[in-house]
Prior knowledge:
One of its GO terms (cellular component) is membrane. This protein is an alpha/beta fold. It has helices spanning 3-10, 40-47, 89-103, 124-132, 177-185, 190-196, 203-215, 247-255, 281-292; strands spanning 26-32, 54-59, 108-115, 119-120, 174-176, 226-227, 259-261, 264-266, 272-273. It has a single domain, classed as Alpha-Beta Complex (Spore Coat Polysaccharide Biosynthesis Protein SpsA, Chain A), CATH 3.90.550. It is built from nine helices and nine strands. The strands form three sheets. It has a four-stranded mixed sheet. It has a three-stranded mixed sheet with strand order 4-9-6. Helix 1 packs across helix 3. It is globular.
Amino acid sequence: MSDEELFWRASMVPRIQKLPYKYVPKVAFMFLTKGPLPLGPLWEKFFEGHEGLYSVYVHAHPDFNESVPEDSVFHGRRIHSQPVYWGTSTMLDAERRLLANALLDFSNQRFVLLSESCIPLFNFTTTYDYLINSNLSFLSSFDDPRKPGRGRYNPQMYPIINITNWRKGSQWFEVHRELAIHIVSDCKYYPIFQEYCHPPCYIDEHYIPTLVNLLYSELNSKRSITWVDWSRAGPHPGKFGGSDITDEFLNQIRFGSECDYNGNTTSICFLFARKFMPNTLEPLLRVAPLLLGFDP
Length: 296
């Protein structure tokens, strides 16, 4: 199926709101990867025992041909993919491809974009309840007046996109079904970004935040639920290795912030975190039963 047909199918919305069958809402976990999932065993533990409440989709490089065991939650979950190059619209194409595939399952109501270096910070039940019961999507979107923000705006986007509409945000989003449909069905703004947003304008940091701010701001919390460390200078967030994994470190991420959730203040602001290197797998599996509430 071509991308055009896929997006067309995914953008369809039933006119009859009441479903003709009973369903349990699911969360779609969409993994945008280069190839393998080195932290896959941690995610296996996360999903274990919760069949029917989640869907998994993997977008890997088309040349990647490593297989996974048949009993893995990742078995048979790869979607048709195209090569992805950092800083180009191919990144957004992959994200929209993941969203569109997940939208084909009407049971999917929440959609989380993750990378191979992402980890869950809580057990599945906590994560599921947090997302399914939220009134809003979790998409970072803010007006950055600096060079890395408004400085990336291309005046040739005017008048379709004004600099006052321009927003920046994290690539790693979580959206509900209505917003996901809006993203994959957009044919007006995406071509403008494809034509005029090139490095140092990074389309994955600006397109969806700007689109949502422009048209659907009331559907968004304007914050991300994926924690990253930007305290170190550079274009990429900090990386973490096995020696970084301690109870104190993880609990600081899990409970060290305050944010709004459905009109109430909470210390649970992040459900996922990145960038965790492959050598964090063993220490994460050791702390997962007690700290994260996974079954041992």
